[in-house]
Design brief:
By secondary structure, the chain is an alpha+beta fold. Helix content is 21%, strand content 39%. This is Ig-like domain-containing protein.
C-alpha cells in the first residue's frame, strides 16, 4: 500500500527553499554592480513628472458681437487639473472640461489631452480683460492671456451740437463728442463736398481746407460764405463709421443788386428785368411798379410815404398773363426775374425788386423806357444802350436803392463817355438830315421835270 504525501510537508519544504535563496541573494547583494542596482530600482519605482505649459497664450483682439478663443497647452498633466479664471477678480469659469460659471456664452473645449480652449461667444464690452489658465500643482502654475473687445464709434447726441444760427460777424463753435474703443477720431467736412473756409489764427484771412480734425470746430467772425451743412464723422477703424449733420445758418439783412438800372425795348417785345438778392433767413421778395420808395419799409410806401409828394402809390405786380415772375434760390442767394410781356407805353416807368426778412429790407430800382424805331430815322444801337446803362449805374450806384451822389473823380472819368454819346447821337442826326435833304432835292427835281 502506497503512502500519500501530506500537503503540509510540501509547504514546509518550499518555505525552506525560499529561505535558502534569500540567504544566497543577501550574500551576493554586495557583489552586484551599481548599474544593476539602479536598473532594479527604476523598474520598481515609477518616476512622477511635473506638469508644464507648452508655449504661451496668444492675446486676442475682436469687435463686439464676434467670438474670442484663448488656447492653453499643457504637457505631463498626470493627476493634476486645469482651470480657467478671470484674472481681475479670480472668478472661476471652468474646471477641466466643465463650465462652472452661469454664463451661457462661455464654453471650454478639451482637445488631444493637452489643449484647453476657453471660448467666449457674442463678445460684450464687459468681456474685455485678462484670463488665467491655472494648474493645481504645488506650487500652483499659471499663464495669462488677454481679450481686447473693440467697440465701433458712436456719437453722443446729448453732448454734441444741434443746428445753430448766428448773426454775421459773430463767433460760433460746433461740437461733436464720440465714444468707442479705440478712441474715435472726429473729422469735420462740408456736406456739399465743397472746401471749408476757416480763418487763420490771429488773421482775418479765410483759407480753404478739405477737412478739419477735432471734436470742437471754432469759427470766429462768421461770414455768409461759411454758411451750410457740416458733417461730423467719427471713426476708429472698427466698422461702421458714424456721422452727424449740423446745419450752420449765418443771418444777415437782405442786399439787392439789379443786373441793370436802365433798360430800353421797342414796343410789342417782351422785356426781362432781373435782380440778385442775398439774405438769411430766407426773405420775402416781390416786385413793385411806379414811384420811388423810401428805404424804410413797404408799409410806409403803401401808406403814401415817397420821396416826392404827388407820386402815385406803387403797384405790386403779380404773376399772370401780363407779368411773369420767377425766383431761383441757391443757398442764401436768390435770382428774381420779372418778364413784362408785350411791352407798351403804359409799361414805361420805374420798377423795384424788394426783399425783406426779420433783419431788414432792401430794394433795387430799374428804369424801363421805350426805344422808338422810325424808317430812315435814328436807331439807337446796343452800344449806345450799354453806354446809357453804364452812366446810369455809375450815377445811381450798384446795390440797394439808397441814393448815392457821384464823386468828382468819377464824374471826370465819365466825361469821355458823355462826349462819345453826344458825338454818336450827333452823327446819327446829321445822317438823318442829309438823308432828308437828299430826298427833298430829288423830289424837287422830279417836280421841275
Amino acid at each position: 500500500m502506497l503512502l500519500r504525501r501530506s500537503p503540509t510537508m510540501e509547504t514546509v519544504c518550499m518555505q525552506i527553499v525560499l529561505v535558502l535563496l534569500l540567504l544566497i541573494v543577501h550574500r551576493l547583494d554586495g557583489s552586484l554592480s551599481p548599474a544593476l542596482q539602479d536598473l532594479n530600482q527604476s523598474q520598481q519605482l515609477p518616476v512622477d513628472l511635473e506638469p508644464e505649459f507648452e508655449g504661451t497664450i496668444q492675446n486676442i483682439s475682436s469687435p463686439t458681437g464676434r467670438e474670442a478663443i484663448l488656447t492653453c497647452s499643457v504637457k505631463n498633466l498626470g493627476r493634476y487639473k486645469v482651470g480657467w479664471l478671470r484674472a481681475s477678480d479670480q472668478t472661476v469659469l471652468a474646471l477641466q472640461g466643465r463650465v462652472v460659471t452661469h454664463n451661457s456664452r462661455i464654453s471650454v473645449v478639451h482637445e488631444d489631452f493637452r489643449t484647453w480652449r476657453l471660448r467666449i461667444r457674442q463678445l460684450r464690452e464687459s468681456d474685455r480683460g485678462c484670463y488665467m489658465c491655472q494648474i493645481n500643482a504645488s506650487p500652483m502654475k499659471k499663464q495669462i492671456g488677454c481679450i481686447d473687445v473693440q467697440v465701433p464709434p458712436d456719437i453722443i447726441n446729448e453732448e454734441s451740437s444741434a443746428d445753430i444760427a448766428v448773426q454775421e460777424g459773430e463767433d460760433a463753435t460746433i461740437v461733436c463728442k464720440a465714444v468707442g474703443h479705440p478712441t474715435p477720431r472726429v473729422t469735420w467736412k462740408r456736406e456739399d463736398g465743397e472746401y471749408m473756409l476757416l480763418r487763420k489764427p490771429q488773421s482775418r484771412e479765410l483759407i480753404r481746407v478739405e477737412a478739419y480734425n477735432g471734436t470742437h470746430l471754432h469759427l470766429p467772425k462768421l461770414e455768409r460764405r461759411q454758411m451750410g451743412a457740416y458733417l461730423c464723422i467719427a471713426s476708429n477703424d472698427v466698422p461702421p463709421a458714424v456721422s452727424k449733420r449740423v446745419s450752420l445758418s449765418v443771418h444777415f439783412a437782405p442786399s439787392v443788386r439789379p443786373t441793370s438800372q436802365l433798360l430800353g425795348a421797342p414796343l410789342g417785345s417782351d422785356v426781362q428785368l432781373e435782380c440778385t438778392v442775398e439774405a438769411s433767413p430766407m426773405p420775402v421778395s416781390y416786385w413793385l411798379k411806379g414811384g420811388r420808395v423810401l428805404p424804410n419799409s413797404f408799409a410806409g410806401a403803401a401808406n403814401g410815404n415817397y420821396e416826392q409828394p404827388g407820386l402815385s402809390r406803387p403797384e405790386m405786380l403779380l404773376d399772370g398773363p401780363k407779368y411773369g415772375i420767377t425766383e431761383d434760390r441757391h443757398g442764401f442767394r436768390t435770382n428774381m426775374r420779372l418778364v413784362v410781356r408785350s411791352f407798351s407805353t403804359a409799361d414805361v416807368g420805374t420798377y423795384h425788386c424788394v426783399s425783406t426778412n426779420s433783419l431788414g429790407r432792401a430794394d433795387g430800382t430799374m428804369r424801363l423806357y421805350e426805344i422808338k424805331i422810325h424808317p430812315g430815322g435814328v436807331q439807337t444801337t446796343d452800344d449806345q444802350l450799354n453806354i446809357i446803362g453804364g452812366l446810369a449805374e455809375a450815377a445811381r450806384g450798384r446795390g440797394n436803392s439808397a441814393t448815392s451822389s457821384l464823386h468828382p473823380t468819377r464824374t471826370h472819368h465819365l466825361l469821355p463817355m458823355v462826349l462819345l454819346l453826344i458825338v454818336s447821337l450827333s452823327l446819327g442826326t446829321i445822317r438823318t438830315v442829309i438823308s432828308a435833304s437828299s430826298d427833298s432835292s430829288s423830289h424837287a427835281r422830279t417836280g421841275n421835270r
